[in-house]
Each structure stands twice: as C-alpha cells, then as structure tokens.
Amino acid sequence: MTHDDNDFRVAVIGMACRFPDASTVEDYWRNLCAGRESIRPLAQEAMPADPPAGYVHAGALLSDADQFDAEFFEMTPREAQLTDPQHRLFTLCAWEALEDAGHIAAENPTPVGVFAGAGISTYLLRNLVGHASLFQSPSSQLHALHGNASDYMATKVSYKLNLTGPSVAVQTACSTSLVAVHQAAQALLDFHCDIAIAGGASVQVPHEAGYLYEEGSILSPDGHCRAFDADAGGTVFGSGVGVVVLKRLTDALADRDRIHAVILGSAVNNDGANKIGYTAPGIAGQRAVIREALSAAGIGADTIGYVEAHGTGTKLGDPIEVAALSAAYREHTDANQYCALGSVKSNVGHLNSAGGVAGFIKAVLAVRDGRIPASLHYSRPNPEIDFATSPFFVNTELRTWPDEVRRAGVSAFGIGGTNAHVIVQQPPAAAPVAASSGPRALLISGRTADDADRAAAGLATYLDGADLELSAVAHTLAHGRRTFPHRRMVVANSTAAAAAALAKPAAGEAAPAPALAWLFPGQGVALGADVLELAAKVRPFGDQFRACAEILRQRADFDLEAAVRNAEGTEQTQVALFAVEYALAGMWREFGVTPRELLGHSLGELVCATIAGVFELADALMLVVERGRIMAAAPPGGMLAISKGADAIATRLPDDVWLAADNSANRCVVAGAPSALFALAGALSEDGVASSLLPVGHAFHTPLMDEAAARFAELVRKVARKAPEVPFWSNVTGAPISAEQAVDPAYWARQMTSTVRFREATEGLVARNPGIVALEVGPGKSLVSFLRTADRGAATVGALGAGLGAGSPDTEIVTAAGKLWLSGVPVDFDAIYGGEQPTKVGLPTYPFALKRYWVDPPEYVPAPARAVEPVPPRVAAAVVETAAAAEEDDFVASVRRRVVAVWSAALGIEEVGNDANFFELGGDSLLAVHVATQLRAIFPLELALGELFVSPTVAGMAETIAAHLIQRLDELSDSEVELLLNQPGAAEERSNNA
Length: 994
Description:
By secondary structure, the protein is an alpha/beta fold. The chain contains 37 helices and 30 strands. The strands form eight sheets. The chain has an eleven-stranded mixed beta sheet with strand order 7-6-8-10-1-11-18-17-12-13-15, with helices on both faces. It has a four-stranded parallel beta sheet with strand order 23-22-28-29, with helices on both faces.
C-alpha cells in the first residue's frame, strides 16, 4: 500500500485542554515553550498536621476542577454536584474543541464519534460515598453511577452535544487517551464517522493533596519528574483533561478547515506475558508498536525529528523505552543523535488517562509551529541509557525545528501493557486565498446576555493587535459557533476596527420564529448616485437593477441610471424608486431573507404587488412609467407633513386640502392647493405644531388625481394580473388586500386618490404578527419609525440608513443584515460576501459561566446533608382536620411543602416555585422514579408513576396527592393514620416494614 495521497491521512482540526496552569491550548503551549514546570509545592494549609515519613507535599493541579456551567449543559445543580469533575471538564473541553474545529454539532447532521476514557472516580470514592442520603434509592444510585463511572463519559458527551457517531469508552490506564486518538483515526478511515473527538480525563480528589513516596515505587521522591536523567526517581501524578478533534484529511482540505497537524499513522498493541510482571513495561511490545506505526505511516524513522516519549522518569521504564525506540529506529537508520526526545511529564506530571493526549497535543503544536520545547530536569543521562550510540538526544532547550518536513512520534504505554504510538506531521500549506475586502459583520451570541457580553469582550481582547484576515474571522464566527438567542454584532472593514467596535457592539435577543415584514416607501425619499455605487459593489442588487434598466431601455427608452442620478420630477422619481426597491427586494431574497408579509406606502404598494406576483416585472415597470407621466400631468399641488395624528388635524383642514396619508398616531400628510398648505402650516406653527412641505409638485392621494387615476385603471386593465402569492396590505382599506382587490383595475385607481391608511395597516400587521421584525426595503427609515409607533417593542431595520448619503451603501446593507440576525431572522452572509470561503481561524471559545458544584467529603460538611423529612405532625393533623372540616386549602398547602422539599433535594435547587415544571427544571425519568420513591416513603400512596406525574408541577402533584389521601382516609387503619402522624423516622420505619 502506498501513502502518496491523502486518503489514509487524518487531520487534527481542533484541540482543547485543562492542564495544570493552562486552561487553554494557547496557555499550555506558552508554558511549554517557556520551560515552565507546573508541578509545584502545595499550599501550606493543605499540609497534614503530622505528615508521615516519605510524604511529598507537591502536585500538579487544575484551577477549576470544582467548576462547571450546569445551566449551559441543561443539568440540574444536583446532577452537576453528583457528576465526577473528570466528566464535567471533559464535556467542557469537548465543546471547546469542536468550536476550535469550527464544527457546530447541533446544526450539522454529520456523524461525530467520541472516543474517550477517564480514571477511577476518586470524587465518588472520597467525597460522595460517605453521604448515605445521596444514595437512598436505586434511581439515585443510578444517577451517581452515570455521572461517575468511566463507562458513561463518552456517551454522556454524545448526548449533551448531540453527536451521533460511535461513542466508545476507552480504558487502557496510562495509554487511554492516545489509544482513543488511534481508535478515532481508524473510525474515520473506516468511515464509521466523519468527525471524531478523542481524549481523556484524570482529576485527582482530594485535589490539593500530596503523596507518599516509597522506595522502588513509580513516584518521585522530591516532587519532580526527571525523565531520562541519572537522578530520576519516579513521576508525579497530576490532573488534566485533553480533547482533540479529528477529520479525514481530504475532507478537511475540501472544507477549508484550519489544520493543526496530520496523523500519518498509528498503532496499538499489548505486551502480553513477555515481561517480568503485569505492571512492568515490555521492550518487545513497545518496539513492535513503534514499528507498526512507522509501517502504517509509510515513512522511515530517519524522517522523524522529535519523539514525545512516555517518559515517566522511572529507573526501569526510561531505559526500556529508549531501548525499544532505538531498536525500531535502527531498522531504518544508522545515524546517531539526530532525533530530539522529550517528555511533557517533566512539565505537568503524569496525567494518567489524559497523559497520552497531553503528549499528543504537545507534538501537534511542535510540528505545527516548528519549535521543540525543552524536556525539564535533565542534566546527565540515566546510566542504563547509551544516548551517544542511539538515534536520540534529550532536548533541553527550546529548539527551532529546521527540517523542511517536520514529523514527530508520540508514545503512551499503559500499566497492563497496552501500548500506543502515533506519528504526526506538520499541516499542509494552506491554499492561497485572494484577499477579501469590504465590510464584514462579526456575529457573537450567548445563552444569556452576560455570556454574550463576555464573548464580545473576549473577542475584542483577542483581536486587538491580531494578524488575522477579517473575512476569516467573520466566516469562523458565522460557521464555527452555535447560535444562541442573546446576540451581539459589529460591522467593520478591518480587524483593528472590529476590535475597537466590540467595546460597544449592537445587541439584540432573537425571537424563536420572528415574523418578517418588508416595508416599501413611496415617493418623497431621497435617492442619489450612491445607488449606482451599491449596484457596482453588491452583485445581487446590481443584477436586479440592471435587469430593470434593460427592460426600461428597450420598452420605454427610459434611462434608469440618469433617473437615479438626477431624480427630477414625478416621471423620473417614481420609476427610479420602484426599480431600486424591486432590486433591493431581489437582493434580500438572494441573501436568504424571506418576508412573511409586505406593506408598501403609496408607490410602495405597487412594488408589493409585483413582488407578490400580481404583475409581471416588465408590465409593472411600464405601468409605473405611465403612472408617473399621467400624475405629472395632473393639476399642480403640494403636500405637507405634520407632526400630529390625523384625528387631531381633521377638523382644521380647509376645503381644498385633504388628508393624504394617515401614517402613525403622531404623523400625517395633507395635500392640496399650495396657498392653502402655506396658510395651514403658518397656523399650525402658531400652535407649536411642526410641519414641513414635501419636495413634490402635486397633491397625491387627493381628488386632484381623479383624472390620472381613471387613465391608470385603463392601463392596468390591459396587463395580465394574478392573485398575490405573498400577503400584502392595502393602502385603501388598511387591511390585508384580497385577491379580488389585487387584480381589480378600479382598486388601483382608488389607491391613487384615497388616503394612505398606513397607521391602520401597521396596527393590523403587528397585531397579526406578535414579535414582528420590520425591514424597510428602500432608502430611509420613515416607515419603520411609523411601525414602532404602533408597537414600541417591534424590531425594525432600515436597509439604507437615513438616506443613501448616510454611509457606504455596502456597509449599510451588511449592517442591516446584522441587525436582522440580531432579531433572529436567518441571513445568508456567505451570499452577501459573494460566496467566499476563507479558511477558519482560531478564536476564543464559549465563555462558560462557571460556578462551583461540589459535594465535600463528610468530614468537611458543617451540617448533615439535606434529606427529605417525613411528614411532620401538623401535616398529618391537617389530614384529619380536612376530613372533618373540609379545609382542603390548608391541607394541600401542607402537602405542597413536602413536595417542594422532595423536589429540592432531588434537583439540588434551593427554591422551587409552585408552578415550576419538574422536567423543565432538569428532571428526567430516572429522577422522577427517585422522587416518587421519596414521596411514597412520606405518604401512604398507591399512585402509579404516571398518575403522580400527570401534572408535573409542585401545585399539580400536591393536588393529586392530597386528593388521593382524602379519598383513602376511610380505608386507612388506625396504625397507618398514626404512622402518618408520627415524628421523623416514621417514613423510614414504614419503608423498612413494607
């Protein structure tokens, strides 16, 4: 088999970790390159009062072992407390690694596998088992088992992250996480999944505790790991979690993923019985697994420049490992001391089940960045190792890797003899991408508003001074992060500008299913030459605009560009405005923005009709050309915008002035003779009412348009018309237009002469569409301001600012798209950016809201663990009293208090409301069984589980129990009634005697 192509290679596309002194991969790499040791003396207060002989007060700790974001992963506080920190931290890292890979599992059907293992749950053994109250029922025992046994860690991650590939628990002791990497790679190459998560976790509890050194053991006598050194005496166990995300190289290249390194080959075997004891290393097995990995990679050992060794720093293990490596390499080369050797255990200790992935991540970073960190505490070789005649030397300083091809081997050998070796190579050179320019929207979201704010602040810090292509940043955020309801957004033209803008991003909260309405303005808004700039910069708008221009040129000898540039007179302005709005609508459709309803103002209603399919585009354009001409020929007049509602103005209108548009509760337009309008404006001014004359020469939507309207009806009668396919609202009635009205020529005549009832339409629109989002598809923001008068809570977006001179038109479009996204409207930003596909880049991952979820061991608990008390006498007395006096409210309240106590203990929630839903609080079927068991231990119930949870609220459950007890009161024996009345302990007695 040849390996010249990429079909048998696997890419490392994502990484995350929690290692001593490192909460991110960047922290970890920085520490390694700085030669930092994270094994250190522990706090003095953690020192035993009388430490035994051989006690070493040192360790490699995690800063957040007791922290978790339970709400993010939809876990109750109690479930989080009963879950081993190994499982919790692995879940966090799995999420972060997928984000680093730019993969959104919840929104992608691609099967993702999970291959992972953890150490024994010392949290369960040391902290939980001493609390008998936590294990009162089989269901509570199962909950503890699922949260602590290593069998369930991989599958729990698959469940929480919605991953549908194979989910496999790996348990091979110290080699666990490197075996997981091998299995994940094989699953990819065998097409069992398309992406795979691999890694391991090991968290020691108690966390800040030293250890006892014994002569001849694998533990270090002085709290340092001196791998391969003459003074090596053993290792130091630490805590850590590491996760990597793998993908077939061909797929990663095709998807333009960020590739950290490439796995060329890997192998796993076992020593069998060919060694001196079960826990001892085996030279034959180690040599065989290295040979097999080299064979799988299809390369010679002489091309490998670094080996990340198992390197535990034991007098027996180190010489055996170097001997095995040398034997395997001597089959390929006679060269001496050409290959660097190191062990990350000298930095962070032996991380047990996470040790292999810690070494793997170090090797990946080394081949990626071309630097080999120092292996610490080495000064002279173990006398049993002859480095001078071997291919290896221990790397004792940060070394620049000069080789053109950088390859590294990684070893992990588990107690019990399962050996793993993986060979990695630097990532392939990224395919060149043309530099992208123009505005980009950076999209950020969080489960809560605080999370979203922290994400924006973290990204701002990260981008400040970063040498990153803005288009790649925007692409990664849009396609590599899950979208949450609380959203933040900025638009910028450079990474530096984006970093600055993130100090105060636009904010919004997405509606679950927002109703989008498109609003189309009428004559009176400004156009300008910037429209032509938009046509040149934004292809979808330009295509639609040029299509309109061509139709107008061929059929009416009309110069659309000149009309837009000059916008003089009704004849030019109406046609230009119609074409611009129609082109904008086509552009938004191509950007994936689809309206539920349409509402136009005056001429804008004709745009609605055309988009809805009533008129064909060519016919509509010709109608608008003729409409402009015949309206221009109408008697002269004027229009006056007034900052008052129509009702307040109606009685003040002279005979030759009419209400032209009822826009909102505090805005209207009147029209008529210019002299009468001047007089009215003066009178209004004296009363403190603002008004302004519009830049038009006619009185639209008045009887002065009667003759023009009659001619227009004849023109409409000559063109084909169809019932609308998209709902839109009538200016004439202020209600949704009917199919009959939409195709009636007389209706379009009335539309020219009648008052524009925009206020009624907006009020109806928002009433029919709660949570509406309105987009003004045209220049300006007047219509969305009118709509906000009808509904102050409506989300509104102006597509082109307050006029096309307000800013770069392409920036206005991207900003509008971003604001739509803030409100929950789906937007295809790739289409906005012209379908570009930049390579994903590394960005900060989700800013989890970490809190302490921890059960201290019994000796540290100041008071007994909370348990559910039996029914106190006052509750049982209420039973008797209720039966006699029918005082059901007091009795139900008493029962309710006991139900709250049971729920609170089961869910780990201090305050539970009467209307709280058990399952919405995080309860599941297993917890429901536990709750039912606890309630049966308190009350003499004969209710099935389904009956008890028929109404899964505190109030509902209490009512069910109370009704059942009252019904059964006459059936109870005297001893059962007395038991119900008994003091604490009665519930346990009845349970034992059942």
